[in-house]
Design brief:
The structure holds two protein chains of two kinds. Chain A is mostly beta strands. Chain A has helices at 29-36, 176-189, 272-278, and strands at residues 14-25, 43-47, 53-54, 70-74, 77-86, 89-96, 103-106, 119-124, 136-141, 151-152, 163-174, 193-196, 203-204, 221-223, 227-236, 249-256, 263-268, 284-289, 301-306. Chain A folds into two domains: 14-166, no CATH class; 175-306, no CATH class. In chain B, a hairpin with a 4-residue loop joins β10 (363-370) and β11 (375-382). Classes of the chains: A mainly beta, B alpha/beta. Chains A and B meet through β1, β11, β15, β16 and β17 of A and α1, α2, α4, α5 and β5 of B.
Amino acid sequence: MFAAPETHPHDLPTFHSQISMPYTLTPGRAAGTFLAEMPNRRIVGSRFPDGTVIAPAQDFSPVDGEEPEALVQAPETGVLTAFTRVNGDVIGLVRLDGCANEFPHRILADLDVLSVGQRVAAQWSDGDEGTSITAIKGFALAPDAPEGKVIDLADPAEPLGVINYSMSLDFDHAYGPYYGRMFDEIREHGRVMGVRVSNGDDALLPPREVDDVTHKRTGTWKACGNTGTIRGCSIINMEILGQARKPPYVYAEIVLDGASTRMIHVIDIDDLESAKEKIRPGTRVRAIWTDGERQGRVSDIDRFEVIEE
Amino acid sequence: MGREVGIVGVGQTHHSRRRTDVSQAGLVREAVNRALADAKLSMDEIDTVVVATGPVLFAAVNQPEKWVVDAIGAQGKSVVRLTSGGGAGFAGALAGYYQVAGGYSERTLVVAYDKLSEGQLQYSISTLYDPFWGREFAVGIMGFSAAYWRARMDVLGHTEEAAAMVSAKNRKNSIANPYAHVKKEVTVEEVLNSKPLCWPIKLLDVPPISDGAAAIVLSNEKLAHHSTTRPAWIRGIAYCCEADNAPERSLMLSEPLAIAAKKVYRAAGITNPRRQFDVVEVQEPYSCFELNYYESLGLCPPGEAADLIASGATQLDGDIPVNPSGGCMGANPIGAVGVIRLIEGATQVMGRNESHQITGANTALVQSGGGWANLRGCAVLSA
């Protein structure tokens, strides 16, 4: 009978990582025009061949994927069709007069005075919100607002081609028992430990529970050497976002003595030409640990250096 | 094996460095409309849709297929999104093939795209590394690719000059490709003298960064005649994987590609690839990869790729032309490339390639791949 191993969830320190990048997004013609018209206080919609109007404007009909026949100016009034409260703000869906879809936005009223079917009208921001949808501050109750009409869009602004955007994502990864032990050893003892393959003495790095060649359980723990051999290397001579070092330097995949798999690290160089000669597959290298406090990361090894023969 | 599956319609965008006039969804729509028109079909006649893209971090829209569905009018259909790095488009085609071959769909639309102008390409790729083990020192896919090319130089003789010949060949071929956006002839010397980015990879060994989409319509045998009298039949297709950190991984040959080729050749009755294929399309994100694939695909024995390119055999007028379309050197919207290569191979055997029709082409080999060189596949197409 299969017996599940006993596991007990408990809190352990996690490994923090962050991915942070700038973007240049493309809204397309319809959404680009909608945003470009925000400073002009006009709500741009799309009119499709069957007469359906959608606002904010979209390049494709949500009904059948057709392209709009024209961009139009939608009215600022409509009907509240749904609402809720998120983080203290009331947000809702507004069906603008003459439009077939719902426009999600902030509702400028307390939750307890709202009901589905109430008339609302857009309130424009007093500040300069630029080409953001927040130029509309939100929708306020407007019980007496007359029914608005969709009209032609006179002299539409040029659509925005590119919108600057950025995204920063924080993660807290669980180490698990194998990575946990490896990074504890790196932090506490300044040594890189792997686990032996199932049928030999070489260590797998990073350590793992199952040998991926034999598919059997891996063996006992083993400290790998502070020295190793380059298996593959390239000379980095370009700057990219997120780089740990200023180029030029060598990106190297190194097999530490006693291990059978690679570790990715860097080697400082003086110049390209001498590095081409001196650093190649087979070159022997030594780990140079950081002078500062070890954090339990691969970067506790600051770099590798070529062992001069 | 399941039912016969043919490519009966193709469409791709005019790829470019940056398309500011359309959103991601608009880009997809262009390719889909062209493929449907080419197959003489409307979306109503498509049973299932596969949307393939590269990593979400390329353009910061999570689950982009929900946006794409509106743009291509695929509401109510079975739609799955698939991602597999650089091989996303090819993996998407494989998924579509399975649906039709298995009899679950009569016609499947596969659309693949990336809009790389929107994000940070190499940094996004660095995030594919293990966050604990490797990401801190990662240099996208370029650092890695260059490192193993360097190793193959010593062992297999894949010299800088041999790779420069690949770049010069493909860049020349792309001049006639109406969908390419880099159309400039370069000499081998210019490639060799271009700026080292991740040496041995130099600027002219590297394809452009592109916005683009590509779509194909797959049909079963029963319905194929509605679209074309000459479909490109998929005689075999496979996409295989090797472990990233496995101790026995050599990176000299592409082992998963060799495994995929063995399966596909058996299915398609290929025993002498060099003689039996009329034309080959490979995804060469850096020039050095094409050399590697010659060997893994059995176009020449291991260690003889440099001789093969130097012999001229893979040029347009050689006995085994590789990348008459110009390959990735003309345009490289990563997620779309697997489908673009299939389109180029398919139109060759359909007799209507728009770049360089190889006269009498009847059987084509198409290769694609992604991941850390650990996901590789190929397909055989014939009329």
